[in-house]
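PROTEIN DESIGN WORKSHEET
SECTION A - STRUCTURE
LENGTH: 124
C-ALPHA CELLS:
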C-alpha cells in the first residue's frame, strides 16, 4: 500500500511542471504584432483568439497580414474586415495572405464570421 502511495506521489510530482506550463501558456499575455518576411504582420488564430488582437498600421500604406489558424476549436475559420470589404477563409495550419490599404486614420475591426472573436487595426 505504501509503495502504491509513493508511486502515485512521484507521478503527481513528475506531472506538476507540465501542468504548470500548460496553465502558464493558456494564461499568457497575447503577443505583439511582429513583421514577417516582406514586412507582413503575422496573426495566429489560437484557443485564445487572435494573436495579436491589436495591430498598429499607417493610413495610406499597404497592409499585408499573414493569418494562420492554428486550432480547430474556434469559430474563427475566416477573417472579416467589413470596412475593407475582406472576408477570407482560413484553412487550418495554412498561412493566408490578406492585403489592403487603409485610407484614413481610425480603428478597423477584424473578426470571425460570427463577429464573436475580434481584434483591432489601429490606423494612425
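SECTION B - SEQUENCE
RESIDUE ASSIGNMENT:
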Amino acid at each position: 500500500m505504501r509503495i502504491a502511495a509513493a508511486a502515485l506521489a512521484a507521478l503527481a510530482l513528475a506531472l506538476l511542471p507540465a501542468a504548470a506550463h500548460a496553465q502558464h501558456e493558456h494564461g499568457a499575455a497575447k503577443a505583439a504584432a511582429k513583421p514577417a518576411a516582406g514586412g507582413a504582420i503575422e496573426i495566429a488564430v489560437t484557443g485564445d483568439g487572435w494573436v495579436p488582437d491589436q495591430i498598429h498600421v499607417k493610413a495610406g500604406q499597404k497592409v499585408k497580414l499573414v493569418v494562420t489558424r492554428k486550432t480547430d476549436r474556434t469559430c474563427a475559420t475566416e477573417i472579416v474586415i467589413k470596412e475593407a470589404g475582406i472576408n477570407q477563409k482560413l484553412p487550418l495550419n495554412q498561412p493566408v495572405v490578406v492585403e489592403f490599404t487603409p485610407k484614413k486614420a481610425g480603428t478597423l475591426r477584424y473578426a470571425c464570421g460570427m463577429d464573436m472573436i475580434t481584434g483591432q487595426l489601429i490606423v494612425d
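SECTION C - NOTES
The first strand starts at residue 41 and ends at 46.
Residues 2-26 form the longest helix (25 residues).
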